[in-house]
Amino acid sequence: MANHIGVDGLVTVGGVTIAELKGFSIEESVNAIDNSTINDLASSVVAGRTSWTGSIECHWDETDATGQGAMTIGSTVALIFKPEGATTGDAIFTGSAIVNSVSKAIADEAVITQSFSVTGIGALVEGTAA
User: Fold this and answer.
1) CB 118 within 8 A of CB 93
2) In what order do the strands lie in the sheet with 76-82?
3) Per-residue pLDDT tens for 14-62?
């Protein structure tokens, strides 16, 4: 079994690599629809719609106008999450999303961080880097 270390991870928005990336997460889920009847002794469910969300954390870089700067509240963005990097054959996850929130964390003797929360529009597609 192959193991991977996050040091090679990248995220692109509109084809531009987001600067100062600290980490990211993506989560896919499905709605469980209850189809139990009154006579069932146990609950029964069927799969409904799928969805996905993501979060991206960076060191804040106000000069990254086309990376971090493209991630504005309410904007629709094209994202590619690259957990292994961008070498041919590496796993990638591609999807369009709406930027739900942008936050900055400021603390004494710490680098300012900026975080983005996104909700997918349509499916998150798993593929490989070309």
Assistant:
1) no
2) 16-17, 10-13, 76-82, 91-105, 113-128, 45-59, 21-34
3) 999 999 999 999 999 999 999 999 999 999 999 999 999 999 999 999 9
Rounded Cα distance between 11 and 123, Å, is 17
Structure tokens given for 54: 């993501």
Residue 123: which residues within 8 A CB-CB, separation 6 or more? 50, 52, 95
Instruction: Specify the pairing of strand 45-59 against strand 16-17.
Output: unpaired
Instruction: Sketch out the chain's domains with CATH numbers.
Output: 6-30+46-128 (2.40.30)
Handedness of CA 34, 37, 43, 47 (dihedral sign): negative
9: Cα separation from own chain's centroid: 12
pLDDT tens column, 79-95: 999 999 999 999 999 99
